[in-house]
Design brief:
61 residues; flat; Lipoprotein
């Protein structure tokens, strides 16, 4: 049962992350053209990549 709950929570976190990234990509349309590519690069990071980076920071503390 606990594994199921954690897997559901993981899916929810991914959905929230994906929604935030979608909104961030929409915001990239409002930045000056010179900043657009950098903005999109930040907004296109996958959830798995985000999680790996987050865990590395947490473990480094």
């Amino acid at each position: 049962m606990a594994c199921f709950i954690f897997s559901v929570a993981g899916c929810s976190n991914k959905a929230v992350y994906d929604n935030i990234q979608h909104n961030n990509r929409q915001e990239c349309n409002t930045v000056p053209p010179a900043q657009y590519e950098e903005c999109m690069a930040r907004s296109n990071k996958s959830y798995d990549e985000y999680e790996r980076e987050r865990e590395a920071v947490v473990e480094g503390d």
